[in-house]
Design goal:
CATH architecture of the largest domain: 2-Layer Sandwich
Order of helices and strands: HEHEEEEEEHE
Radius of gyration: 15 Å
Distance between the termini: 29 Å
Number of strands: 8
CATH topology of the largest domain: Ribosomal Protein S8, Chain: A, domain 1
CATH class of the largest domain: Alpha Beta
Oligomer: single chain
Shape: globular
Number of helices: 3
Helix content: 25-40%
Structural class: alpha+beta
């Protein structure tokens, strides 16, 4: 039993990038699927596929690299809100990652979204991770 599945998700992606893997397979959950969709929409991953094998299913994430320099699109991916210490951000205290160049993924009452989308919809929530 994993105590922090989101940290496990981020660590699997981080390790796959360091090992220059093209695809990483991660056990699925609804929150992980939503985080994957946000990463795809913002251009940090090349593609993804949800597979329903077994009771839980899995997510196959195709990582994105620069064609010439082979540098990953994800430079850093870090967990912010942990099970031992939750981090919440209101509309006025919304974090800016790398002065707006990166994204913060939030879990809000209107679903999982980036910090910019949350500001536009005037909602706050739990800050899950920073990606740049």
């Amino acid at each position: 039993m994993n105590t922090d599945p989101i940290a496990d998700y981020l660590t699997r992606v981080r390790n796959a990038i360091k090992a220059n893997h093209r695809v990483v397979e991660i056990p699925a959950s609804n929150l992980k699927k939503e985080i994957t969709k946000v990463l795809f929409e913002k251009g940090y991953i090349a593609n993804y596929k949800f597979e329903d094998n077994g009771p839980q299913g899995s997510i196959k994430v195709a990582l994105k690299y620069h064609p010439i320099t082979k540098i990953s699109a994800i430079r850093s991916i870090a967990r912010i809100s942990k099970p031992g210490l939750r981090k919440y951000a209101g509309m006025d205290t919304m974090p800016r990652v790398l002065n707006g160049l990166g994204i913060a993924i939030l879990s809000t009452s209107k679903g999982v979204m980036t910090d910019k989308e949350a500001r536009a919809q005037n909602v706050g929530g739990e800050v899950l991770c920073y990606v740049y």
